[in-house]
Fold this protein.
Amino acid sequence: MTETRQRPLRVLAAMSGGVDSAVAAARAAEAGHDVTGVHLALSANPQSFRTGARGCCTIEDSRDARRAADVIGIPFYVWDLAERFREDVVEDFVAEYEAGRTPNPCLRCNEKIKFAALLDKALALGFDAVCTGHYATVVLREDGTRELHRASDMAKDQSYVLGVLDERQLAHAMFPLGDTLTTKDEIRAEAERRGLAVAKKPDSHDICFIADGDTQGFLAGRLGRAEGDIVDESGAKVGTHDGAYGFTIGQRKGLRIGRPAPDGKPRYVLDISPVNNTVTVGPAEALEVSALTAVKPRWCGTAPSGPGTYTAQLRAHGGETEVSAELVDGELRVAFTEPVRGVAPGQAIVLYDGTRVVGSATIAATTRRQSHVTA
Amino acid sequence: MAYLDHAATTPMLPEAIEAMTAQLAVTGNASSLHAAGRRARRTVEEAREALAEALGARPSEVVLTSGGTEADNLAVKGLYWARRAADPRRNRVLACPVEHHAVLDAVDWLAEHEGANVEYLPVDSYGRVHPEAFREAVERDPSDVAFATVMWANNEIGTVMPVRELADIAAEFGIPLHSDAVQAVGQLDVGFAASGLAAMTVSGHKIGGPYGIGALLLGREYTPVPVLHGGGQERHVRSGTLDVPAVAAFAVAGRLAAERREDFAREIGALRDRLVGAVLDAVPDAILGGDPDDRLPANAHFTFPGCEGDSLLLLLDAQGIECSTGSACTAGVAQPSHVLLATGTDPDLARGTLRFSLGHTSTVEDVEAVAKAIGPAVERARTAGLS
């Protein structure tokens, strides 16, 4: 189970302008591949400069990526995928929130943009693979099939947001940072050693197309304010909100409920109902989920035939939990060994067998110990 | 390597490099009064005389600038401000829509910040401004026209403009006409005095001279309001210490461009025709941009239906063929060319363009490399499609 690609490939390196993708491109070039850098312009109206540590769509980022490509000594282009990104990622993001779900746009971007629109164009132009700065490992097995595994360093692992890739996409994916058992500081040191000026650039966080990090404000701008009730489990009104779409199941902050709960404990968002624009809140215990169903399953390899036991990850940077899962009529039925809290419909569940990514699906409904929630 | 992007910049001529390097070790500010200053001034003035002779102008009409962009800005803004100051009714600017951005954006800036009423002249499918259309625009109200600007030849599609006829019409109404001749020098006869222009932009690095040097040829009766204020150099319209080595080398390149122009135009035109023939043979549905006959002899521009120009660029670059899509970038993203859009080209079609521009180092081998590579590249780019 080692990376055995030795043949020089024509590689298209997606370069965000950040340190990870720059080092990834440099490593691919150093490994002897014929690398071309490409920066994806994902915003129709790019900002000139980054504000704080956010975003990856500014003109400055594009220049940083170009500068890194020049230092590595590879050709560099900017490809305009703003329209595809808007349709497949931004609009999907807004529609999902509008429907009361909590989407993961990074996952959607990997599925629809980096390893679809970009990969398809790369393959058509004669490239063999797309290289990114993700921390995950592709393993080429002796039978020629490929597996996606967690990064060597679990703390940096990003296999969750790549869990949507199928085997064909994996066959053309290259993650040179995946076998890195080093800290981020060491990646920065490597960038420094390679003469890459992005070595000291802050990490990007949050959602790249919401430059100021204000997701609520972004959604309010897109969907308008729609005042509604916040109710408790009994249906009694405990507060008001400016739009049900602005909430995530398990959310505690920002509820602005004046009156404390009778038991004095914090209350969490239990349910979001876009139809009657109502947000239901309750105690932490009420968040506990014993099972879920997930739709649109995607498998990294062949789909499992019968029920199986896996570990599951339910959100980016989330922990692992043991589940049993089975594919029934195209839907994934998942039962948790121990109840888990804060499972939000719209997020992906990624199933693992050890370090290997088995597949993923989008959470559609959860079963609480008390009730059943669909959003 | 096949370098076919001479319209972006062309290699410096050995004679120009020699003139420049010789001056780099010499001290002297051409504005100083002492011996070192006098020596520098003599170099500058001899260079000015050589440039004037090469461009059919008087030495006093050569206003040295940092390049074509600055010369264009000085002409556009300076003439507008001066003409409007003389008569506040003059706020109309007649501009050609296929200009380089150095003119286009300066004109748009006047509209946004200085109350200019910018009127874009109609162009035909070759991107040419017709004298009748210009006359019609002027005659609607000659008294409110601040100035007009029409390039000598288009940098993307190569079409040559009827500059002398346009200048005659402008002169009839006492309206100054500026022309950006950056691409025309060395390929066409651009004699300034004979042109009847009020102002004409030229650039060093497009003719085998150094970067960062250019000139605005400026009729003696015009005093544009300066864009750069300072020491009062260059007739008080362009302040700044002169770059003596660059000026000296620019003059050598200008002289050689004039001396060699006829032979160069004939030879490069033949090579260009060969390239056009080869591309059309390999890709029969490619469309030659610009006027097929009355065009810059070193320019070949094509539209490849169903292709992204960027994809073609990448594929050719990978084979050592260096050319351009011809259009400007916004944040590095290629936009459909404003030139093609102005000629009425469909926006999707306008994305699949390539400009090959030849120059003094171009060879038959360069053309053969394109002939061999272009067919497969177009085929592949079509598979990748329009994203």
